[in-house]
Amino acid sequence: MKFSSPDIAVHKPIPEPQENEYPVKAWGVEKFGENFKPLTIYRYQVGEYDVKFQIKFCGICHSDVHNVLNEMSTTRGSTYPIVPGHELVGTVVEVGDKVTRVKVGENVGVGCVRDSCLLCEVCDRGEECYCKRGFTHTYNTPKNKDYGHIGGNPEVQNWGGYSEFDVIHEHFIIKIPDDMPLEKAGPILCAGITMWSPLNHWGATDTTKKLNIGIVGIGGLGTMGIKLASALGHRVVAISSSDKKRELAKSKGATGYVVSNDPASVAAESGKLDLILNTVSAHHSLTPYITLLKTDGTLVNLGCIAAPMQYNQFMLLLKRVSIAGSLIGGIPATQEVIDFCHKEQVYPDVKLVGVGDLERVYTELQENNSAAVRYVLDIKSFRGSE
What is the value of pTM for the model shown? Predict the structure, then answer.
């Protein structure tokens, strides 16, 4: 694993537990530049609105790689020790006295949002990831003392899902249907909602509409987008920089395919697409995608790219097209995509791995982000792994 920017990495050792905390086994990176190792972290005791659940699986997102290897920013480094993971799935083992949404024994999940103010107009309409005061990511973030929804030592960073248990306010819990495969549910809490949210916002979840939708990037995120858009009844066009993934894209539900580096291929679909979801996270040209849009079409960028993107503004004017962005989704939308995937049997392609595979998986994802599968950490692999 290749780490970046050592000068901005933050080191914040785990303090001794407070009286309202208990030890939990986790797997993380203790110091910048080190490999994964077993760690003891401390979760807080269940409060009146809290849910404690035993984690069984946790998806490995490419953003986990960025966070662990200190690649998320050139100015604000990751905090170590770091326990990553924001695709947590497990079973409830304890609930607070005032919890009404779930019961002991039910399966639940937690995605990218651990906390938000729950008071602003954005939170009020169920879009917690756009909280006006800022949402709290599931891990490697400070606890917002003003919100009051996270217990334990307020000075300790949040820990993610590469651990055996977690505790979270019931508002941020996602219910997982009893017969849904838990190992496949985790990635829906990230990849699934990342694709569902723009589909929903730009009208594609209205089943009375039949749209032409483009998906750029045929990796784990893009293939999930193809599956969702196809299951919603739309014509789906996969878009990639080469012809290598044509058959893969078609096997996931795409009926069209565009090679963005081939002018003839782009011309064949020029002006035909209502909506394009762009999953590419590396700097690239937007020109081919704008060419593919209809009048009033929208290109939605989903990749985290810090460098400014270039495009010809004249192209926007001539067709009144829009360039937009979208960040995961709120709690109601996340529940919607879980329920939709369960009903329609739309699941990500996953590969289970153990803690002994983490360095290999992280190196693979860092060097090549084109894998069409989502890796999922089996928490059972913690046992006997020291």
Answer: 0.94
